[in-house]
Structures are given as structure tokens and as C-alpha cells.
Amino acid sequence: MKKLVFALIFLFFLTIAGYQIIKYQFSPTYSGEIEMTGLSAETEVYFDDFGVPHIYAANAKDAYMALGYVHAQDRLFQMEMMRRVGTGTLSELLGEDLLETDKFFRTLGIPKHSEWSTEEWNKSGNSEWKSATEAYIKGVNHFIQNGKLPIEYTLLGAKPREFTINDAHAIIGYMSFTFAMAMKTDPLVTKMARTLGPDYMKVLSVHTLPEHHFIPNHYPDRDEYSGEMLLQNSLSGLLEKLPVPLLEGSNSWVIAPSRTASGKVLFLNDTHIGFSQPSVWYEAHLEYPGFSFYGNHLAGYPFGLVGHTRHHSIGLTMFENDDQDFFEEKLNPNNPNETVYGNEFRPMTIRTETIPVKGKEPVSFEIKESIHGPIMNEVIPEIGRLTDNPVASWWVYVLEPTKALEAAFKMGRAKSLKETEEAIRLIHAPGLNVMYGDNSGNIAWWATAKLPIRPEHVNSKLFLDGSNPSDEPLGWMPFEENPMSINPPSGFVASANNQPDTLSNGTLYPGYYYPGDRWNRIAKTVTSRDDWTQENIKALQLETINENHPLNAQSMIEAVDKEIFQGFEVAIEKLENWSGNHELESIAPTLYYKWLYHTLHGMMADELGEDDFKNFLATFLYIRSTPNLIRTENSPWWDNIATEEKESRKSIIEAALKISLAELSKQFGKNPEKWIWENAVVLEHPHPLGAKKPLDKIFNVKAPAVPANEESVNKLSFKLNPDGIYKVTVGPAMRIILDFADVEASESVLPTGQSGNYFSPWYSDQTEMFATGQYRPQLMNEAVIKGKMKLLMKP
Q1: Domain ranges (residues) in the chain
Q2: How many CB atoms are closer than 10 A to CB 480?
Q3: For residues 643, 648, 651 and 657, what is the CA-based torsion angle, rounded to 10 degrees?
Q4: What share of the chain in percent tops pLDDT 90?
Q5: Is 325 annotated as a binding residue?
Q6: Could you say which of 68, 637, 638, 687 would form a disulfide bridge with 699 (CB–CB 3.0 to 4.6 Å)?
Q7: Looking at domain 325-397, does it have CATH number 2.30.120.10?
Q8: Is 181-239+250-322+405-459+474-541 CATH 3.60.20.10?
Q9: Res 229: pLDDT
Q10: Is 635 a known active-site residue?
């Protein structure tokens, strides 16, 4: 017995010792001194209590070289994943399971476009943003060459190659691909239009409906604006394999001094991105003569896309404009490599690309391009199933080289509204809502993107006729006609991925917009008082109310016979009196989402099939169309085409309720009081290696249950499913609040932690804070910062 005890004690201490050795070998260096060739002077990096680096440098080059180093030591493997997606080389590191993903991104054209952008970069002359970018890349490579690489490389038996400007452009390309809504939606809409007919389409919200909420425009007087503005009163399955998150949406609102207690601008932003470990944003604070900036940075990207100086703050949401069309081509009967265009034939270009695959021989494949773009049939299964004709992707992003690096550099250094607008004009795609506030009291929102002018007859959600020149875009709108609002009389600007109102040229611009439930809650709340503070505005940023869901629920309850409720009256009563809040102790959401799924499935799966029904639930159509689908009595969707009898709205909703009550009783017990929302919600932040067991137990970060919801301000979304367990996959990638009355007191929080290194103390330290609605400071006060942990970088 004594020998066993001794052996167990020995094993325990051996395990502890082994862990400490591994930790020492792979953990980041946050204190002490390091030498970096290329620095012109000593550079100090202080790490605060949450691992945010505060960099004090003699000049821009030293600051960005230091940023590159610390960013890499915390997020190198994330940089690796991002650049491999953008260059189409995931298979080389992760194996043949990612081969189809590489083929997709290469066919779409992101690697090709990155190389084009790099060629143009190399041709350009010297500039501040170019030298700062190159210094950042040098810092990343210094870490790759001299730092302690994260353990993921050891587990994969790989070493990173040096980082390049082409990698940065590839990362921009991947993030520009973002949410792929056109690719998820247009093939499905085209299929429904071709196979189901107009009566089915009328019930859907393919285009924005009048009852949806519109973002009001307020265009500036351009004469006045010449100076400083004055203050005024499937594919889804393929994408699920991605080891990096997709952008989904976002909220941001900026409140003018007339509505704040401090008499200064109040600024808020929470970008909605797929949850992952590490989360997408890396915070860093840079100080050098003439520049002071606190920003949120993408992996491999030197300039903060979201951030603030003491003068102004920049935030982002997705514009969700339609910047991709699909052209169905007709082939020359005598030459399969030519397409019909009017009365002519146009040759397709063909190139062969070779993809290296880990442990296998390289795979070569052909990419064909028509005059409209790459042919997507082979890489988007929904297109391949819909038509045998080649379908080309016309995508704004790949039509010109990116200038996103220059834009981000200039956005952070803008001294006025006018300079900010000049910077954001450089972003041609993806469509972004840029939010702005400053210490002079100005507030602004610009939707930035190159907006194609389409012929009036074109429905951009349907495949266009590639042989018909009249379907072609006619040109581009001037930036001055883009959606925007500068110092509006309402005293606030807000964007929540919903439809901008009619433009100055009379156009209601098409897109994949959300119905505006979040925007409406923001607008109603902000305009309800004029004493907003950094503290009392938190309740809105953390709100989980959706006002539309109770109306759907009430409509469903009224449709069914009351005897079905017998034994479940408590649950029905809770749903009947539901405010739309998704509190963890609530019963209503548990029943609502289960019942909604089975109702929609009963309506639509017979016409669409199981695969396309799942695709429908993954598109903006699901959120935007659900109220119409549920509440429309005489809709062809209610009839099950697989049966002889004609089903009614009542019969489908009743059948769905019976299934739901039976499944919830089996899942949580027959007592509806136990059907609390907390028991149905799961949140786990997945690491790229967490897809392989047992590595998920090591690298994934589990979080407490959160008040999951669809389209509340605090959006914590999940996939509607029949299982009744809702895995939260998307939500705020940060929550920022800043009052210009005290910039140094601004606050934020990340979903997990600042570092992506498993052995860092800041790997997951913010997880519970985020889940429970807490915040922590964004430090800029030198006296406070310089008492923290210090890493000295020496030439």
C-alpha cells in the first residue's frame, strides 16, 4: 500500500514537473529584455492585467516592429490559419480534409487577387503606411526566427514560414469574403424561383419589406463639408470546416452630446463574428511622438480596424450590401471553352493550380473563368445541383487591388470628419458601416463600398443571363451617394446590418440585410432619454429582448386548439406572456425555438428537401422571412406536397406543437418548470485543433451558458435545429464603450482572452466576464500602465 501511495505521489509530481517544462518551452515572454535587429531605440512594452500590450516607442517603425513581435507571440497560430485560408493552403498543414476548402477559395480568386495586390504594393513608392507595415512584418518574422513557437506547430510536426505582405493581403481577402451570404442565398433563391413559382416567393422576404426598419440617411452639405464639420443638432458544410471565424454582422451606435449626461459623445461597438479560440480581435495600445492609439487588430494586420485616439473613435459593422452576382453562361456548341455573349463568342481562360496536401501527393485542378469571373459549379455544390451550365461569380472585391492597409492607417490618424471620409473611400469591398465620434462632438456613419449600378430589370438575388449584355452592371455610384448620416438632428447614428433608407439618388440599395429588430431597439432606447452615461448604456448593449418573437409565438398559440395544451399550461402561459427576453431562467425561449423549428420544417422541408431546408436556416432569409411565413394564413408553403390531402396552417402548427411538447418532455422532463433556457444553451469557443479529439478538451474554451437569442441587441446566435440544444456560434467579438468626457476610462471585453497561446495566463481569463456581462478597462493612462509587467526591446 505504501508503495502504491509513493508511486502515485511520484507520478503526481512528475506530471507537475513535466507540465512546467512544457510550459517553459512554449509560453510567451512578457517580461525581461530581448534584442531585435532593426530597432532604432529601446522600446518598452507593458502588459496590463489582461495581457494587452502598451507599446512606447521612439517612432512608428519601432512601434510597429514591437507590435508585430508581441502580436505573433500571442497569436502566431491564428495568423497561420488566416493566411492559409487566404492563400488556399490549409491542406498543406491540416491534411486532405481541407482540400475542398482550398479549392473553393482558389476558385473564388482570393489567392490570385492577393498576388495582384502585392504586385501593386511592390510597384508603389515609399509611404508611411508601407514602412509601418514592413516594420510590423519584420517584427512577426523576428518572433518566428527567435521566439518560442506555440505548441500547435509541434503537435502538427510543422514549422512556420516567414510572414509576407502577400500573407497580409490574403488575410484581407479572406475577411472580405466574410459571411458568404450571396453564395449561400442566391443559388437557393434561384432554385425556389425556378421550381416553386411566384406564390411561394411572395411569402418570403427576398427583398426588404416595408415593415422592416430602415437606417435613416442624413447627407452633409458638401460646401460646408469641405472644411471641418460643425456640430449640428453545403456551401455551409464546407465553410463549417474553416479553422477561422466568419464575420456575421455587428452593432454600433454613437450618441451626440445632446443626449449624454457628460455633454460629450458616447461611442459603442460590438462586432458579431463566429466564436473561436482565440477570438478574432487582438488589442494593442501604441504610443510614439505624434501618435497615441488604442486599437483592435486582426491577426497579421498591423493597423487597428476598430479603435480610438484621444481625438476620435472608429467602429465597424457589416454593410451587408449585395456585391456579388452570379451569371449563368451559355456555351458555344462547337467549343466548350467559349461562352455566348450577345452575338459573339468569348473565350474562357483556363489555369491549373496545384495544392500541396499534407502526407499526400499534390493535387492539381483547373479553374475556368468567363468574362464575368470564375466558374463555381465544382466548388459550390448547390450550384452544381441546380444547373449544368457554367455559373460565374462576379464579385466586386476581386475587380481591383485592395487598399485596405492604407485606409486603416489613415483612419487611425484622421484629424477631422473630412480626413476620416477620405480614408474610408479607399475601401472598395467588403461593404462596411464605419462609425465615428470625436471629442468636438461630431458623430457620423458612412456605408463604404463601391456600389455597382444595376439595370432596373435585374434581380440581383437570381442568377443572371451571362449571354445577355443588358444584364451587366452599368457603372458605379459616386461615393457621395452612398448611405451615410453626418451629425443628424436625431442626436445619434446607429447601424445593425439593416437596410439603409433611400439614397440621395432615389435608390433603395439591395443587400442581405437583417430586418432591423436590433436597430429598432437601439433607436427607441437611445431616443427615450438624454442623460446617457457609460454605465447606464451597458443595459442596452447587454439586452437580450426581441420584440418580434412574442408576436410569432402569439400567432402560433392562437392557431391551435387549446386541448393540446393540457398538462403543459405553465409553458404555454409563459410563452403567451413572453416579452421576448432570453433570460437564462426563462421557459418561453425553450418552447418557442423548438416549436418554430418544427413549424418551419413542416412547412418547407417537403418543397426544399432536407439539405436546402438546412441551407435556408443558414441564410438571412430565415430571420427576415419568418414572421411572414408564420403569420400568413393562405400560403402555399402550408400544404405538404408529399400527401394527397391539403394541409392547413392550423394542422401544421398543431403537429409541430405536439412534436415539440413530446420532445421537450423527453429532453428535460414532463414538468415544464424545468424547461429553463439555461439548460438548452451551450457555448464553447473552438480552437482550430479542437476539431480532433481529445485536443478539444485541451484547446477549446468552455463558457457558462449565455442568454442565446436571434436578433437581440446582445446577439448570441445559434443554428435552429430539431435537437433542442442550441450551440451558440456567433456573438460580440468585443464590447466597447467610450465616453469622450474621459477617454482613459473606456471599457471593453473579449469573449475568451487576449492570447491564443495555451500557456499564457491570458488564454481564457475573460471568458466568464464576457458571458456574465462584465467589462474591463482599455488603459491609456501612462502612470497606471508603467506600473505593469514590462518587456524591454533593445536594438
Answers
A1: 181-239+250-322+405-459+474-541, 325-397, 548-581+587-675
A2: 15
A3: 110
A4: 87
A5: yes
A6: 687
A7: yes
A8: yes
A9: 44
A10: no
